[in-house]
Amino acid sequence: MRSPRRAMHRVRTVRALRAALAPWRARGESVALVPTMGAIHDGHLSLVRRARASADRVVATIFVNPLQFGPTEDFARYPRPVRRDRALFAAAGVDLLWEPTIAEIYPPGDRTRVRVSTLTDTLEGRVRPGHFEGVTTVVMRLLHAVQPDVLWLGQKDAQQAAVLERMCADLLVPVRVRRAPTVRDRDGLALSSRNAYLGAAERAQAVALWRGLQAARARLAAGERSAARVVAAVRGVLRQHPLVREDYVAVVDAATLEPLRTVRGRVLVAVAARVGSARLIDNLQWSAR
Asked: Can 131 be counted among the known catalytic residues?
């Protein structure tokens, strides 16, 4: 049974983190981890709710990881509403918030990186070289520091979730990796920290990603099994929204992320696009019967 709710504790260092975790471990309490880069929204809070239901204690992290940003990407301007994030996490029932510095995660002399092959060669990995090496490296360090029983990830970042699941399995990390469904706004737009970059006109057109995926779902439900025609259905919607500039639309195997010509088994329809200065991603899982 979950321990009584208490005020959220905040730490900065690994040493303080481990000191805070020690009495919970001594009492045999289980721990769930929710890693984030901040700019907290209802998608993150849904992970916290699931984490609370899955473990006695919830640890959340806020760390804008420089290693997963490319040289022309938005690391410097990534939203960092720190006080708001802390208040949202406290209200949601996070027990411990770890906010490490860059030097705490990547100390002087750091040379070690974690790489998952094959799964990172497509989709985001193809258009953002080095991105997933940054993700796997930082999440492995968070896992080693916290040593949680459960790790909660979101389906919106489906490729990232698949990569981290593979990493934990391959490296024998003793953690259960769980995925939560994508949380959407009323019009279907997937919640994302980068939605904050959208102006009013851009926000109105950003829903094209979800509408495109809905068009794909309709084609699949009608029996379409040509991946090319499913992709064309998504692109047909995107072209109706002039502020949306496609990065990619793809149909891949949901487990291996390999591109498909024919829809079979469990597939992922993935889309990435730029809307103004925001780069957004979304996806749809489908199981062919």
From this structure: no
